[in-house]
Amino acid sequence: MRRCAAATRAMALGCITFSRAREGSCAGRRTGAGKRSAMKFPATGLAVIAMSSILNLFFPWLARAEMLKAGDLAPQFATDAIHNGVTTPIKLSDYRGRKVVLYFYPKDNTPGCTKEACAFRDGFGELERWGIVVLGCSIDSADAHRAFAAKYRLPFALITDPGNKIAKAYGADNGIPILGLDRRITYVISEDGRIVKVYPSVDPATHANEIIRDLGADKAPPRPTPVAAPTPAAKPSAAPHPRGSSDSDSDPD
Q1: What's the whole-model pTM score?
Q2: Where are the domains of the chain?
Q3: Is-catalytic flag, 118?
């Protein structure tokens, strides 16, 4: 019996020792793995930074400009506008004194862009009665704009952007870098030429209504104060005829 008890205790001690040794080994492996993971994160971050630098160096057209902020002066531009099938040269300064909704979109005749343009079309009357200008901008040619506007009866102007100069100035270029398409961004420009609202995340289906609500265009515009008509000046009265004189009177002989 004593031998059996001693053997049992030895086996128990052996199991405990083995278990502790195994736990120590696992803990060591976990610690090593943790250290390796911790080392991987800085390495990954450095790799991303290096790759970004290489892309910007060799493919500068992939880089994005920063978006404008409320309060910034809106960059001036001159380009062609397609409206009612007619191409007309315009400048942003042509609209000084009026609010301008300048919306960038990727491409004509794509599902999201068509949905957004039609939403602006349907709400254009409310914006127009407040004197608000709507300009749509993408990388498409004047002919593509003309066909797109005619197909969906767009009542506002679509502007061309050769070389993406306008999109770059407004931080809207390279929405899809491989294709060079614009990002879906909208700016509201005030009457004095400053950015008053920025919409960096746009739902094409509801964006036009969002603009209308934010600008208060869903309400009736104030009626102009009537101006009183000027009172006509009184006509001068004829000089009184002197008494005792007459055209028929003749001098005495």
Answers
A1: 0.66
A2: 2-58, 78-214
A3: no
